[in-house]
């Protein structure tokens, strides 16, 4: 069943029907949730729809399931470049290039990322050099977007490095929600007894000690304070997932503390019961209010006067957006099973049987043979 949905998703992608392609890939993933290729291909369809944040999430999941898939890194980088996350994109490209050294796309895009990073950081570097006082010790800020652990000068009393691993063995990433920060260390096949995680008021310490291997230690002063008793971690087959409970609903501009990162912004908690949209580390110097931008786009779309098929498609989108889960399931199932000829909102009727195709008058529905 999943393979049939995957075929249909690919056909929809070739026909430039990217929304249908994403819907079909989603159904296939529900059936086969550990198939890395489904996530990588859905990422490509999301890129076509300019759903770049969703594409990054899909590519990350594909990489988590199969870290040797070069195209997953390429798609993550493509989405990050469109989000102007050049540091993250560069890290993904470098990882992909090591897997596919003959693919010139990685080399070309890495050069583009370097140019963009240089353009973004040129003025900042110049300003920082001019403003640094003699004999002052500046904490080394760790870039989270490149997915590696670097030495950091983080002690509150005197600047002493807390990260003791000069060459990191495992890469990590993080994202944040209103009330927590989730750190993922990609360490495969590590028994839980070999992992020790300690939480302080503003300190995270992770130790991975496997017999016959060098001990891995990641210890850092965090950007903000946490509630140690509410923090937790899970050791999974492919990673160690750590959840840090924030004391304040502020936006962490990085995972690690730096004296240059003292300006914080309150995260507005959602008014409903839904889950807050996670935020991701950024290499941009100027913050963009994506919520405001999205609201403006939606307002323009709502006020736009449409005719013909465009108006009909907008009507269907509005129905789907405001519908409950049963209505959405009915719309997806009827549309897919009828090959795009039926769109029903009655789940009791649609859920009980297969929806047959109903072509317009004067047309015939044919089944393609593969």
Residue share in β-strands = 5-15%
Q: Unreliable segments (pLDDT under 50, ≥5 consecutive)?
A: 123-166
Number of beta-strand segments:
7
Mean of all residue-level pLDDT scores: 77
Sheet with most strands: strand arrangement: 1-2-7-6
Radius of gyration: 24 Å
Provide a count of the helices.
Answer: 11
How far apart are the first and last residues' alpha carbons, in Å? Answer: 15 Å
Q: Which structural class is indicated by helix and strand composition?
A: alpha+beta
Shape: globular
What's the helix-strand series?
HHHHHHHEEEEEEEHHHH
Q: How much helical structure, as a percent, in the residues?
A: 40-55%
Q: Quick one: biggest sheet?
A: 4 strands, antiparallel
What do you see in this structure?
The chain is α+β, with helices and mostly antiparallel strands and 370 residues long. The chain contains eleven helices and seven strands. The protein has helices at residues 2-14, 18-31, 36-48, 52-65, 70-82, 86-99, 104-131, 290-303, 308-322, 325-337, 347-350; strands at 172-176, 180-185, 195-199, 203-208, 216-221, 232-235, 240-245. It has a four-stranded antiparallel beta sheet, with no helix packed on it. The longest helix is centred in the first third of the chain and has 28 residues, at 104-131. The radius of gyration is 24 Å and the shape is globular. The two termini are 15 Å apart.
